[in-house]
Amino acid sequence: MPVLETRGLDKHFGGIIAANQVSLSIEKGARHALIGPNGAGKTTIVNLLTGVIKPTAGQILLDGQDITNLEPHERVRLGIARTFQINQLFADLTPIETLGLAISERLGLGKDWWRIVGSKPAVTEEIIELLERFRLGDVMRERTAILPYGKQRLLEIALAIACRPRVLLLDEPAAGVPEDERHEILSSVEALPKDVTVLLIEHDMDIIFSFADRISVLVNGALFVEGPPDEVARDPRVKAVYLGEAFDA
Q: What DSSP designation does 204 have?
């Protein structure tokens, strides 16, 4: 059984069809990429999966459970986490505080999070592990607002992992990151826990091909091509609508 599945998913904004009969099947532990040209509907799909917007028609299932009408916070509790194209971090908190807040919320201790950070060994150990894994140790006490943008993106991924998701949706994690910082994003995405299923939206083909074991191509809100990376790379239809000669290398 797929861990995450959509069946005939539609989303209309007036006369605009942003998702058109999208049926995705994502296996447990998969590294699945969703790609397509600008305006193809990729972020709409993520917003539908996370409950930010509701579908016009169709179903969304998590481990076979229909979650189509659940609110975003209910989906987080069931194990779906995400990052955004533009980060949604707390500008005045440090990475230590940000991760401490997320872990405390997960443990049902959110209202006392500022007391918990540094006072409970298990929480402290988890914060340290996440800071090390996502290369944030050198900036752990800096306000998020002044961090280099690459570090902010790493913190957002760390924050999602702190929620202990079963499914992680990464919406262009390298977007806007300077070239000299992108390798850290790439390494961190590649090193995500194997038991976490990942759906990745990304334009950076280096990240896509070093990461994904399956690719779905979305065009005009509809699934166009789907398969293993090497098959998608060779498909002339994909080159024609999106990738041009970028796959020929």
A: -
> 49, 52, 51, 7: which is closest to 25 by C-alpha?
7
208-243 per-position pLDDT tens digit = 888 899 999 999 899 988 999 999 888 888 877 765
Tell me the CA distances in angstroms from 12 to 17, 45, 185, 194, one per residue in order: 5, 12, 33, 35
- Give the side-chain half-sphere CA count within 13 A for 60: 21
What does the H/E/C string look like for 21-76?
EECCEECCCCEEEEECCCCCCHHHHHHHHHCCCCCCEEEEEECCEECCCCCHHHHH
165 within 8 A of 196, measured Cβ to Cβ: yes
Nearest-5° Cα angle at 135, 132 to 140: 80
Residue pair 216/24 in contact (Cβ under 8 Å)? The answer is yes
Q: Which amino acid is residue 230, in one-letter code?
A: D
Do 81 and 170 meet the contact criterion of CB atoms below 8 Å apart?
Answer: no
Q: Nearest Cα to 209, choosing from 192, 225, 186, 226? A: 186
Strands 214-219 and 31-35: parallel
User: How far apart are alpha carbons 171 and 175 in whole angstroms?
Assistant: 9
CB of 23 closer than 8 Å to CB of 6: yes
d(CA 166, CA 218): 24
CA dist., res. 211 & res. 227, Å (int): 14
Write the pLDDT tens digit of every residue in 31-82: 999 998 888 899 899 999 999 999 999 999 999 999 999 999 899 989 999 9
